[in-house]
Design goal:
The N and C termini lie far apart (about 65 Å). This protein has about 375 residues and is an alpha/beta fold. Strands 3, 4, 5, 6, 7, 14 and 15 form a seven-stranded mixed sheet that branches. It has a six-stranded parallel sheet with strand order 10-9-8-11-12-13, sandwiched between helices. Strands 1-2 form a two-stranded antiparallel ribbon. Helix 4 packs across helix 5 and helix 7 runs parallel beside helix 8. It has eleven helices and 15 strands.
Length: about 375
């Protein structure tokens, strides 16, 4: 009897493994970048994983290109996990073509439409499923590689300027990291809104790039006090709005740079989170507003409203004659070279966005 039961277990186990193999092999697969163990760029692994299926109200995008963001580096190191229920694949933006429509899609998207999208994750892959409210049409004069550089950086800059700071015509806006993806977008948007952009950056080449996009002044934070530069530029009045992705190491100069009743918008802490000194007292003396904002953790409705506002007020300016707005691309890597792309960003070598192609260029 023992022998019979033992044999039965073996047969059952074999049957289970066979059924599981058939089920797994019947899934449509795709290539994606995975991180099994948090750490350095060498921990980014390209492998075959099941292709996502679009849920109710979602569109499946065939990804042609994605782009890097600082949040990607943090997630790779285990410091910035995706919101609950979202893909654990890195990547916050893509451009590509519509592959499949999920049930309940209402906005008229069609297969092969050229689209770009804001994501909570999943961009480093051949396919990604996205709520249809977060899709935007790619302007006809842009390639899909150019379009991949728009969603996260430009929507972040737009959110900070319009939804959070409520920038007004004629105001002076100080944007830190003025040659980054968000920085190059912010400079152009500030000009579009009739305000005056000034920037900080860490090299003459990056300052020159920002100024070519419309920055009225630029300050090399490695060589000079940007607070003094802002005071000199504004005649001592200070900046009405500061867009700050640096945080702790800049706080004293930020408060010094801020105009009375100014808005200091914090959206990152690349320079540290700890603050020592009389921050509150100095901020209070200027009646300053400290506003903090993130985008990834926002609700779907908030993001949908943001995408709608951006699509109506900003997106047309990418395709107007003369192309008033343009995404700035530093370099392009392929998906197999994703670790090299991360190293490039970590070394602060980029001016503008780092784009990663997922499918061959000729398919665009």
């Amino acid at each position: 009897m023992h022998h019979i039961l033992h044999t039965g277990r073996l047969l059952l186990g074999s049957t289970y493994k066979t059924a599981r193999h058939k089920c797994y092999s019947s899934l449509k697969m795709m290539q994606a970048v995975c991180v099994d163990v948090p750490g350095g760029p060498e921990n980014l692994l390209l492998r075959s994983v099941p292709r996502p299926q679009p849920k109710d109200g979602e569109v499946l995008i065939k990804v042609h290109a994605t782009a890097l963001n600082r949040a990607d580096l943090l997630q790779r190191r285990g410091l910035y996990p995706p919101p609950p229920g979202e893909s654990d694949i890195i990547g916050l933006e893509v451009a590509g073509t519509v592959d499949t429509l999920g049930p309940g899609v209402k906005r008229g998207w069609k297969p092969d439409d050229r689209v770009m999208a804001l994501l909570c994750g999943g961009g480093y892959a051949e396919y990604v499923a996205v709520p249809e409210q977060l899709l935007m049409h790619v302007p006809p004069n842009l390639t899909l590689c150019q379009a991949a550089a728009i969603p996260e950086a430009w929507l972040t800059a737009f959110q900070l300027l319009v939804f959070v700071a409520q920038v007004k015509e004629g105001e002076v806006v100080l944007a830190h990291a003025g040659a980054s993806g968000v920085g190059t977008a912010a400079v152009q948007l500030v000009r579009l809104f009739g305000a005056v952009p000034v920037v900080t950056a860490g090299s003459p080449e990056k300052l020159k790039m920002a100024e070519s996009l419309g920055a009225a002044a630029g300050f090399n934070y490695k060589e000079e006090s940007f607070a003094k530069g802002v005071h000199d530029f504004t005649g001592g009045k200070g900046a009405n709005v500061i867009l700050d992705c640096v945080g702790g190491s800049n706080w004293e100069q930020n408060v010094s740079s801020l105009a009375v009743d100014g808005r200091w918008v914090l959206y990152g802490t690349l320079g540290g989170r700890a603050v020592e000194g009389d921050l509150l007292g100095k901020l209070l003396s200027k009646r300053g507003h400290l506003l903090c904002s993130l985008l990834r953790s926002r609700s779907l409705q908030y993001k949908a409203d943001l995408v709608e506002a951006f699509s109506q007020t900003v997106l047309p300016h990418f395709s107007e004659q003369g192309a008033f707005l343009t995404p700035v691309i530093d370099s392009t890597f392929n998906l197999e070279s994703i670790a090299e792309a991360h190293r490039h960003m970590e070394a602060n070598k980029n001016t503008g966005k780092i784009v990663v192609t997922v499918t061959p260029q000729e398919t665009q």
